[in-house]
Design a protein that fits this description.
11 helices, about 75% helix, mainly alpha
Length: about 280
């Protein structure tokens, strides 16, 4: 039986499309402004690359020789490379929120809040710019992996998948950083909390050892850690012979769900950073 409900007027659908288009334009405008800052000071990208490069050159080489960590058919360096890329994404994005505190002190946040822009568009725009930073880290780490002879996949689709995963992971952790900045509101507290969170997030994941090696309680924590799913996706896409333990669909779904929740929270908290 056909539904008797009237079809929505054509004007309503066109108005909805206009709202979506306006939202996207706002996100792009915010992201473009943030990327311009990176162009003016590209040294940040290279300084953030030092730590993951050292992990590959020192930690990876030593543990690869000891063979103390079971990684199946993968060499340890191959197993570790996606985890180091995820670490770089985490360490770059987790301190992104400090820029919001600087913008508050300079009065920029107040100007944004009086604009007609959606709060969620402001949050997503900043998350997208963090993704650009993550992509530059990806290029650098890919170059290092090739120099070390790590068996990375260079076909178009796997590389594209890695870039998408990095963009999504950067958005998740930069939005998480923004939530922290909205709560603590001072640079000193933010830096302290950021430093406290990064290492537990990193070590309570499958970045440098498989989940099967962990004690039971840590396995539970690792499965609730968004970084675990980023590493899992990168390991399946980035290295030859790498496999996803949870499935790429589950990895993407967890990351997207986490991002949506964080964007909603950050959108509600964003005005409070100006107070």
């Amino acid at each position: 039986m056909k539904s008797l409900e009237p079809a929505p007027p054509h004007g309503a659908s066109s108005e909805g499309f206009a709202l979506v288009a306006d939202f996207v334009r706002q996100v792009i405008a915010i992201a473009d402004g943030e990327v311009h800052k990176l162009r003016r000071d590209p040294t940040e990208v290279f300084t953030r690359s030092v730590q993951p490069i050292l992990w590959l050159l020192v930690f990876g080489q030593v543990f690869g020789r000891s063979r103390a960590i079971p990684t199946g058919a993968l060499r340890y360096l191959d197993f570790m490379a996606p985890g180091v890329l995820a670490q770089s994404v985490l360490f770059t994005a987790i301190f992104f929120g400090i820029a919001i505190i600087w913008e508050r002190d300079l009065g920029i946040v107040h100007k944004m809040l009086v604009s007609p822009a959606y709060r969620s568009a402001l949050v997503l725009g900043k998350a997208a710019s963090a993704g650009v930073r993550g992509l530059t880290q990806t290029v650098i780490i890919y170059g290092v992996t090739l120099l070390l002879g790590i068996h990375v996949r260079l076909a178009v689709l796997p590389v594209l998948g890695v870039l998408i995963a990095v963009l999504l992971g950067s958005a998740v952790f930069s939005t998480f950083s923004l939530v922290i900045a909205c709560i603590v509101k001072t640079r000193e507290r933010f830096m302290g909390i950021g430093q406290v969170l990064t290492m537990p997030l990193f070590f309570a994941s499958n970045a440098i050892y498989p989940i099967e090696m962990m004690p039971g309680w840590l396995r539970v924590v690792a499965r609730g850690n968004p970084l675990t799913y980023l590493v899992d996706a990168l390991r399946a896409l980035m290295v030859k012979g790498g496999q996803s333990a949870f499935g790429l669909g589950a990895d993407v779904a967890v990351q997207l769900a986490t991002l949506v929740v964080l964007v909603v929270i950050a959108g509600r908290l964003y005005p409070s950073v100006a107070r």
